[in-house]
Known about the structure:
By secondary structure, the chain is α/β, with parallel strands linked by helices. Helix content is about 35%, strand content about 10%. The chain has helices at about 45-55, 80-85, 85-90, 100-120, 130-150, 165-175, 190-195, 220-230, 250-255, 260-265, 320-360, 380-385, 390-395, 425-445, 445-450, 465-470; strands at about 125, 155-160, 175-180, 200-205, 235, 255-260, 280, 295-300, 300-305, 365, 375, 405, 415-420.
Amino acid sequence: MELIYEKGSKGRHLDILPVCDVEITEMPEAFKRNKPPALAEVSETEISRHFTKLAGRSYGVNDGFYPLGSCTMKYNPKVNEEAASLKGFTAIHPLQGDDSSAGCLKVMDMLSRNLCEICGMDEFSLQPAAGAHGELTGLLLIKAYLKDKGEIGRTKIIVPDSAHGTNPASAVMSGFTVVNVPSGEDGCVDIEALKDAVGDDTAGLMLTNPNTVGLFDKNIKEITDIIHEAGGLCYYDGANLNAIMGICRPGDMGFDVVHVNLHKTFSTPHGGGGPGAGPVGCKSFLADYMPGSTVGEISEGKLTLKRAPKSIGDMKSFHGNFLVAVKALAYILTLGRDGIVDSARNAVLNANYMRVALKDTFDMAYDETCMHEFVMDLGKFKDETGCAAIDIAKGLLDYGMHPPTMYFPLIVHEALMAEPTETEPREMLDLAVDNLKKLKTMAIEDPGRLHTAPHTTCIGRPDEVCAARNPVLKFVREEK
């Protein structure tokens, strides 16, 4: 498919502007380009056809099954998009005063209070723009708190080996040293290894529960107690909050600070560049270090922005991705307390339905009741058929479905991690199971076809190693 820059011809355009009725002021020469930007010169028809065709080549949650594990590509109710499109939210400027932005302040306040209730925290900042940004923010809170107490010798963050890759990266960016602890045979944190890892240099622990293999760690309170007894703090990665929201709270498990992915759990499916939002919540003893400005009440319900006395500073301009916050609040208020719980329970139900339906087809990394996602281990399958996890994933594309996450978590070498989410009906789950069973049969009877899959998509199987090592990052336009 041609790029938009390869279409049209010199001098062609689509703008029909009225005659200017104000004095024209030329831009100073110092601010002008040396030559005009190489923009596409196309007509209205050409640009309309191009982007319509391009949209048809994309695949998203509105097109079909999208079971990426640990990512939760959820349904985004269109009413939430309508709410976020209201002019009172889209036409406002962040430097407006409290009186003319009272509605936006109310949204921020209501969302923060709801997130506090759901997560068991005392205060929330909406400023962080995404999950990893929230991780960085939470770790900087911990760092500021420890420095304030004179605990500068606490330089190590403990991270399980099943953690998201952003966890150790965020810890390093925050100036900490990462200490990995292994998982036990049950897929959860090895308690004895954790006890050996803590010490006077422990700053904290980063953990998500349910964890990355989809299991709720039955020792979670013992884990956070071990860290607290060593003098460290506990950070909760909210990537997997979907399975437990409204049922149990990170704050009650012993966590001191948490980030929430609004774009994973509360209405806005992420992917394709965002936007995301990763609000950070904390217990009251960390509130003095919160970033940016949070909402506070002056009197009689009148709201204003306040800044924490020992704030770590701004993590982003103004107040984060505000329209994502609007959608999240609309989602929470629409579902209510009972709906939030039902959403979590249905996510768990759908995952276990698929897991049980597939357990005789593929080995499960951990063959027990899971939470919102489960991991298939195709190591033995690869040895027997010569077809790997990537072959099954590519083959699923030929059935019009997005594949599960491949090769993650890293502790399962031939992993396929599936998260069907709470919104898929039983018929879709049955179809996905049937397609995966067909792919196993194909791997046994015609492995060559799987090795070259997909065959029905607009792009076949690319040379992924070459693409990773020699990426083409810039289009060079040839003058016509």
